[in-house]
Amino acid sequence: MQNTTTSLMADDTMTFADLACLAHQNAGGILSDADNAGRAGAAAAALVTFARCTGLDADGEPAATAVVDLLADLMHLCGGTGMPFCELLVSAAQHYGCEADT
């Protein structure tokens, strides 16, 4: 798999093993605020850690399963702490929109 955000596989074909590879490709690097591949690598590393903590780290496990579970767990966290998940998600989408153009 190439080290660019545009070459990422569709969520129904990307597996945990692909995700771990992406995280490894970006390991130890200094992320630039203008580097979308670095952002994707950092997100992959966080998702790999989450998947390992929750038992979703089988090589053939769809990466989308870990994404969905992490989002649901973040919703639980926000609900339990009073953080407005939906507002934060809208803000994240706005950040993504701005960053995707760079």
The secondary-structure class comes to: mainly alpha
H/I helix tally: 4
The fraction of residues assigned to DSSP E strands is under 5%
- First and last CA, distance: 22 Å
Unreliable segments of 5+ consecutive residues: 1-7
Oligomer: single chain
Number of strands: 0
Mean pLDDT: 84
- What is the approximate shape? globular
Name the helicity range: 55-70%
Largest sheet: none
SSE order, one letter for each helix or strand:
HHHH
Radius of gyration: 14 Å
Question: Which features would summarize this protein structure in a list?
Answer:
63% helix; single chain; disordered N terminus; 102 residues; mainly alpha; 0% strand
Brief description of this entry?
With 102 residues, this protein is mainly α. It has four helices and no strands.
List the helices and strands and how they pair.
Blueprint: H1 16-25, H2 36-54, H3 63-81, H4 85-100
Helix pairs in contact: 1-2
